[in-house]
Amino acid sequence: MNDLLHKLVSALITGALIALVGYISVTVRRRRVAREEAAAPVPVADPTQVLLRQAQQLDLSRDDLAAGGRAPEALARAREAADAWRRLTEARPGRFRAERRAALGRLSELLDAGGQGQQAARVRQEAAGLS
Fold it and tell me: How does DSSP assign 58-88, residue by residue?
C-alpha cells in the first residue's frame, strides 16, 4: 500500500512538473514573440492607396453635387478630382491614365456648362494627350 501511494504521489508530482515546464515554455515563447513583434519595423502604408480612395470619393462627390444642381461646388470637386488623378499618374506612371482622362472629361463638361469654353478646351487637350 505504501509503495502504491508513493507511485501515485510520484506520478502526480511528475505530471505537475511537466505541466509547469510546459506553461513556462509557452509563456517564454509568447514574450519572445511579443518582443520581436514590438521591435519589428512598422509596415509602411502605400500612400497611393490613400490618394486613390480620395480621388474616388471626389469623383462621387462631384457627380452627386452636379446631379443636385450645385454646379459651382461640383466644378470645384471636379478640379480636385482631376488633380488627385494627376498625382496618382505621377506616382504610378502607366496606371490610372483612363481614370485621369475620365476625370478631365467630366471637368471639361462642367467647365463648358459653366460658360468657360476656353478652359474646357485646354482640359480636353490635356485629356487627349493621355491617349
Answer: HHHHHHHHHHTT-HHHHHHHHHHHHHHHHHH
Instruction: Name the average pLDDT for the chain.
Output: 86
Whether the Cβ atoms of residue 82 and residue 107 lie closer than 8 Å to each other: yes
With CA atoms as reference, report the closest residue to 54 among 75, 77, 73, 70. Answer: 77
Confirm whether pTM is higher than 0.85.
no
Q: What's the mean pLDDT in 54-80?
A: 93
User: Exposure string (b/e) for 42-70, b if CB count within 10 Å is 16 or more?
Assistant: eeeeeeeeebbeebeebbebbeebbeeee
Task: Enter the C-alpha cell of residue 62.
Answer: 462631384
Question: What pLDDT does residue 42 have?
Answer: 60
